[in-house]
Amino acid sequence: MGLGVDWALDWIRLSAKAMAEHRTELIELDRAIGDSDHGENMDRGFQAVLQKLEETPPETAGAALKAAAMALMSKVGGAAGPLYGTAYLRAATSLGDATDIDPAAMAAALAAARDGVVARGKAEPGDKTMVDAWTPAVAAAATTVENGGDVVSVLEKAAEAAEAGAAATDPLVARKGRASYLGERSAGHRDPGAASTALLLRAAAEAARGVAGPGASGADPS
How confident is the model over 93-117, as pLDDT tens digits? Predict the structure, then answer.
């Protein structure tokens, strides 16, 4: 069984919850190497997404993600709004009107989201940006599909890889964004965009497990 609009709505709700719970953490990460507003912006943005979805309930996962994209682009300041908005919009386009998202379609949507971030931000792996969380997540999702994993596994492995990727930004010297102005002083701090990406992908995995039910393995087949 694949995933549909219920999963997308749960993902967005859990994302909003994560942004609220980790708001202060993201603010502190951004204060170290940015302008301190990432946590506030992400929290406000996802509250706007929830309101938009309540006003106009979507019928497909793609429609839900497109609505999220529009809300994030209009409500989230700084670079995060356009970057995440583009990610959700590309994912929505990839999913189209699908009502049953299988593992391959999910991996393709994640890849489309990552490619949107890259196209918009012009960043590469190692630049100390959210791309450092998105790229390993996409690779892990693709590998899980190749290994015959189910759709829950695809998101679980993507989330794990994103978390590891975010942690791996700690020692990097930023080459993009406001943090790049700090040069060597940016090393030793986690990139806030990578951190929020990991939180969002973890929310996607939790939503998938919740929708799929207790019978979902969430692990690669042996």
Answer: 999 999 999 999 999 999 999 999 9
Q: Which residues contact 98 (CB under 8 A, 6 or more apart)?
A: 2, 4, 60, 61, 62, 105
The token duo for 18 is 């994560």
- Please state the pTM of the whole predicted model: 0.93
* Single-letter amino acid, residue 158: A
* Dihedrals phi, psi of 33, to nearest 5 degrees: -135, 5
**Contact between 71 and 87 (Cβ < 8 Å):** no
DSSP state of 172: P
Q: What are 98's two structure tokens?
A: 């699908």
Closest CA to 201 of 150, 138, 145: 138
Question: What tokens were used for 218?
Answer: 């969430």
Question: What's the rounded Cα separation, in Å, for the pair 163 and 76?
Answer: 23
Residue pair 109/101 in contact by the 8 Å Cβ criterion: yes
The amino acid occupying position 77 is: G
Neighbours of 99 (CB within 10 A): 14
Averaged pLDDT, 132-137: 98
Phi, psi of 3 (to 5 degrees): -115, 155
Retrieve residue 45's tokens. 């943005």
